[in-house]
Amino acid sequence: MPLQNRVTPFGDVVALAGRGTLMGNRGILHDDARRVVRPFQVRRWIACRLEWRGRKRAVMTPHRYTELFFLDEAAAFAAGHRPCAECRREDYRTFCRVWEAAGCGRPAADEMDLVLHAERLDGRRKRIHLAPYRDLPDGTYVARDGRPWLVWGDALRLWTDGGYAQTAPRPRGGDGEVLTPPSIVRAFAAGYRPAIYPAAPV
Q1: Sign of the Cα pseudo-torsion (131, 135, 139, 143, in order)
Q2: Do 175 and 130 form a contact (C-beta atoms < 8 A)?
Q3: Which of 27, 58, 8 has the alpha carbon at shortest distance from 158?
């Protein structure tokens, strides 16, 4: 039975079979029985490599941070996570550079985390904002009929824990219910191109 440590683009921590391509954390979310008891513990939500320098961890060890798993980088961003400054140093540096170029603020970890924490949550619920479909850069996630869809080119691609299940045309007009935090959307528009699941249609 899957552990409750997969993260959807809505930011929910759920029990699903798909492992994904990135790991991350937002503090200690589980108890000694490996049950998730809180949605986050800290403001620093990061997305990490699955493997780095041969480090090994027992997943959901008591009193250690909860290992979370994301389908891909675009989904991690939608949930409100940013690149880890340690294991993904180059991605982090690129993100900082684009963050500043997009006018999102000073590219320092604590300051970025403060901005992102305010943008991703309304109390403990996912914060969603509206934006015209025509203005959304590739990598942005939107909600349609309660499901998360990736904006990529002229199409929307439906997220599942195992990959992108189907496509639909990107609407030519109207606003989308955007899941990806506004500062990250601006960073995408300024040139940061998030990695997407390898099996995604091209």
Answers
A1: positive
A2: yes
A3: 8
DSSP 120: H
Q: Would you say 167 and 155 are in contact if contact means Cβ atoms under 8 Å apart?
A: yes
Cβ neighbours of residue 75 closer than 8 Å, sequence gap 6 or more: 7, 8, 9, 20, 141, 148, 150, 159
> Rounded to two decimals, what is the model's pTM?
0.95
Residues 75, 149: contact at Cβ < 8 Å?
no
- Write the pLDDT tens digit of every residue in 108-142: 999 999 999 999 998 888 999 999 999 999 999 99
Residues 9, 187: Cα–Cα separation, whole Å = 17
Alpha-carbon distance of 144 to 128, in angstroms, equals 12
Contact in structure between 117 and 158 (CB atoms under 8 Å): no
Q: Which of 53, 54, 55, 94 is nearest to 73 (CA)?
A: 94
Assign residue 9 a region: left if phi > 0, alpha if psi is -120 to 50, beta otherwise? alpha
Q: 169 exposed, middle or buried (CB, 10 Å; 0-12, 13-18, 19+)?
A: exposed
